[in-house]
């Protein structure tokens, strides 16, 4: 089992899937999970374009960051806020990624259950 997998997700997976489904889960899940280091780098270097939010699947926030980070330069105030928000996002990225990975894992379990 992956050492970074949340204990609650692991318990959920073991309780819902049989051996073959568990094997499928263990093959597919690593391709869907995100890495916090990648998220931090995206937030720090491309955060003004909303890249880290698009990467996490939060399209609405990604568009907001993109607009404020590009067109917002005309107003000066929004880019400063976006810069601070990106720094805060980089600090909180571990929690964002953990939440995303847990929901991805649960969604995968549901997909495998529907294939029964």
What's the topology here?
Layout (H helix, E strand, L loop, with lengths): L6 H10 L2 H14 L3 H11 L4 H5 L3 H12 L6 H38 L2
Helix pairs in contact: 1-6, 2-6, 3-6, 5-6
Describe this structure as you would to a colleague.
The protein has 116 residues and is an all-alpha fold. The chain has one domain. The protein is elongated and about 55 Å long. The protein starts with 6 loop residues before the first helix and ends with a helix.
Looking at this protein, list some descriptive labels.
single chain, 6 helices
- Strand percentage lies at under 5%
Structural class: mainly alpha
Q: With helices defined by DSSP (H or I, 4 residues minimum), what is the helix count?
A: 6
Look at the structure and give the mean pLDDT: 91
CA-based gyration radius: 17 Å
Largest β-sheet summary: none
Whole-number tally of structural domains: 1
How far the N terminus sits from the C terminus, by CA atoms, comes to 23 Å
Please provide the count of β strands: 0
Question: What is the 3D shape?
Answer: elongated
The helix-strand sequence is HHHHHH
Helix content: over 70%
User: Which regions are unreliable across 5 or more consecutive residues at pLDDT < 50?
Assistant: none
């Amino acid at each position: 089992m992956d050492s970074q997998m949340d204990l609650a997700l692991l318990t959920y997976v073991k309780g819902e899937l049989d051996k073959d489904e568990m094997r499928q889960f263990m093959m597919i899940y690593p391709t869907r999970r995100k890495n916090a280091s990648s998220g931090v780098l995206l937030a720090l270097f491309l955060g003004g374009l909303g890249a880290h939010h698009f990467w996490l699947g939060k399209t609405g926030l990604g568009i907001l960051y993109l607009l404020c980070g590009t067109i917002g330069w005309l107003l000066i105030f929004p880019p400063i806020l976006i810069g601070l928000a990106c720094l805060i996002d980089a600090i909180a990225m571990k929690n964002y990624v953990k939440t995303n990975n847990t929901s991805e894992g649960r969604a995968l379990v549901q997909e495998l259950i529907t294939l029964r």
